[in-house]
Structure formats: structure tokens, C-alpha cells
Amino acid sequence: MKALEQMYENLGIDKGLLSLGREVENSLKERFEKIDETAEYNQLKVLSAMQKNRVAEAHFSGSTGYGYNDLGREALERVYADIFHAEDALVRPQITCGTHALNVALAANLRPGDELLSPVGKPYDTLEEVIGIRPSKGSLKEYGITYAQADLKADGSFDYEAIAAALSDRTKLATIQRSKGYASRPTLSVEQIGELIAFLKSKKPDIICMVDNCYGEFTEETEPTDVGADMCVGSLIKNPGGGLAPCGGYIVGRADCIEQAAYRLSSPGLGKEVGASLGLNQTLFQGLFLSPTVTAGAIKGAIFAAALYERLGFSVYPASKTERFDIIQAVDLGSPEALKAFCAGIQAAAPVDSYVTPEPWAMPGYDSDVIMAAGAFVQGSSIELSADGPLRPPYTVFFQGGLTWYHAKTGILFSAQKLLERNLISL
Ligand SMILES: *Cc1c(COP(=O)(O)O)cnc(C)c1O
User: How far, in Å, is the centroid of ligand 1 from the Cα of 181?
Assistant: First the structure.
């Protein structure tokens, strides 16, 4: 223990802060055991899917050009489908990010005259431009697809009356965001999502229920496709890439929905048959294999951050004792100075670019300046230790990731250290 403490001190962590950190960590032992159990279950789920599909070394050689007959890509998509207990999957490096995956899934399955419904309130910032809530070139709105929204109730529960009222003859697809993203509402559990889907299908049996699964993968033993979702969509530089995937996104679900998505992603007439995997198959398999434990480390980091910042007197969301269904932790820092200090600490703890200072910036897709701390091996990867927050009151930082629990913990201690050095907290 002495050598470890010395190591933290050498890195510049205050003695008092370190002992507070240790106290907080000790209080979380039982929580961490539960998280390890979920990780173990999901590890076996991934392993079983790989074995069932006879993943072999031959699957690791990539294709080039059109990418016809890419056995590795096809095996990877079957593995994803099995993990999600779904009929089919599209898992591609050509899907550039989560927003792109969601746009493909939506644009592919909607037609002019259809209506899209969000029964869980305002969607993630970047989706506003996809949908056309904020005017944007190429939005669904420009193609004559309208949008309706039913907000959650003040306590975060579903407003079934409002949802029923928002359904119309033209409602074709419901988009359900699992994680809270940048909003201050609870993240939905898979169980809650199942209840919502059951309600939607009772009112409109043919409605397509799509779940934005970003940040939710492997946080529970089930996924939304286990409770009736027709599609689950996410990014490979979040949980399911396990920190190794250098890019990519996935859509899993009903075969007909995935078929539509494949024709939209590549081209009518081409669909799933094209899309070179280049050299990425092995990395995408291996990242998926590591994802359950990487995700578990990130959840531990989120809970540790919540517990530590609660002790320091901040409002945190979710609270440290709340059950987790994603890897995001929000802390209301109350001032731009504290938000910048927090991000400076996360940046200083990074393995890459630790010497730079993050500054607020206008980000494409976001409607206010955002500050982001990320010293990642993969640009913008938020399964790696990262923090970001829009520069608007209450100056909430959204903290997520950490390829290992130890690194997540170090980053959080660094963030508090910066607040301490700038006299924004006292111990
Ligand atoms: C990250 C995220 C997205 C968008 O993903 P990008 O990869 O940043 O484009 C969409 N929805 C949610 C809930 C997210 O967390």
C-alpha cells in the first residue's frame, strides 16, 4: 500500500484527497461485486456467441475493394445478432459514429409521409439535426418525415396518456433513447424499455421500436432486443468496441429492418453484400470480447465519481446509490471554472495528450459550446476516460469511460485535485 500511495503522491494527488478516495472506494465494495457478476454473465454471453458461430483465425483476414464474401464480417454480424438475441445485424466500420448509425436506421425504415415518435422526450443533441428539429440539410424533415414527441413526466416516468395521444395513423417508428445523454432525466432500464414497447405495441402492433442503445450495452444482463425492441443501435467507439474498435457502428434487430438499413448504408441493390472490412475484423471481435469487463470498469468509475463528488458537496446524477443502466455520470459543477478544472484533471490523467489543456469549442451537432477532455487512443472514443459538458448552467460535466477501473479512478482523483488546487473545493 505504501508504494501505491507514493505513486499517487508522485503523480500529484493530495494526501487528504487520496485518503478520502480510499474511504469512498471502501464503501463501494458490495456495489462493485454486483457489477463484476454482470460482467461475468456478459463475458460468457459473448464467449458463447463466438463459439456457436465458430469464430476462427480465417475470419480475421479482411477484404478490400467491394468487400464481397467477407467471411469475418459475416461472422461478426452473426455474433452480434446472437448476443442481442436478434435476427440480424449490421456491424460496419463504414458506419462512422452513433449518430450515423441512428440516421441510417431511421432513414432506412421511414418513408415520406411517415411520422417518427419519441415517447421519451427530447432526443440526444445530434439527433435534432437528423430529425430536423433544428433545421438541417438532409434531415428526415426535408424528406417529408414528421416528428412527434411525448415528454417524460417530471419524475422521469413515461407519460402514457401523452404517448397515446401522440400516436397517429402515420406513426411508423418510435425512437427510444436508453441513456440520458446530456439530458437530466433518468437512464431507462431494459425492463422499463420493455414496458414502454409493450404499451406502444398494444396501441399500434406494427410500430417499429428502435432503441438508441449508446452507452447501455453490457451494463445489464439483457439488452432492449430481449424485451421487444425491433432495432438496437449504437457506436463501436463506446461500450461494444471495448476500447479497441477504431471506428464503426452497429444496428441489430429484425431481419427486415436490418435489410432496409443495409440498403440505405450502401445502396439499393447492394445491401449487406458490400463493405470492405479492411484489416478490422480481428480488432472488432477482440474489442467485443473485452467489452463486458471494460464496461464494468467504466461503471465502477461512474459510481466512484458519484460517491466522491457527493462527499465533496456537489449534486450528482445519478446519485451514488442509484442502480446503473449506462456508464455516464453527471456532476453539477456550478461554474464554468469548476467545469474547466474538472476537464483539465481528466485530461491530465490521460495516457495520450496528457500535457494539453482542454478549451470550450463549438462542436458540430451541438447547440452550445462544449468542453471535452479526452486523451484517447481512438479519437473521440468515450469508452475511454473522457469528460465533456456544454458551457451552460448548471455547468454539468458528463463523465464516462475508462478502459480499466484503475485508470477511471485515477482520472477522477485528478479531476478533484484540479478543483482543490484552484480553491474550488476544500476537504
Ligand atoms: C453518443 C450518443 C449518440 C451519438 O453518438 P456519436 O457517436 O457521438 O455520433 C447518440 N445517442 C446517445 C444516447 C449517445 O450517447
Answer: 8
179 Cβ inside 6 Å of ligand 1 = yes
Contact 381 CB / ligand 1 (< 6 Å): no
Q: What is the grid cell recorded at 144?
A: 417529408
% of the chain surpassing 90 pLDDT = 95
Ligand 1 pocket residue status of 126, Cβ below 6 Å: yes
Same domain, 229 and 309: no
Q: Say whether pLDDT at 184 is over 90.
A: no
Are 92 and 241 members of one domain? Answer: yes
Q: What DSSP string runs through 105-149?
A: HHHHH--TT-EEEETTSSPPHHHHHHHTSS--TT-TGGGT-EEEE
pLDDT digits (tens, 9 = 90+) for 349-379: 999 999 999 999 887 766 779 999 989 999 9
- Are 73 and 115 found together in one domain? yes
The rounded distance, in Å, linking the Cα atoms of 340 and 395 is: 9
End of a domain among 229, 246, 278?
A: 278
Q: What is the pTM of this model?
A: 0.96
Q: What is the CATH number of the domain that holds 11?
A: 3.90.1150.60
Range of the domain at 107: 63-278
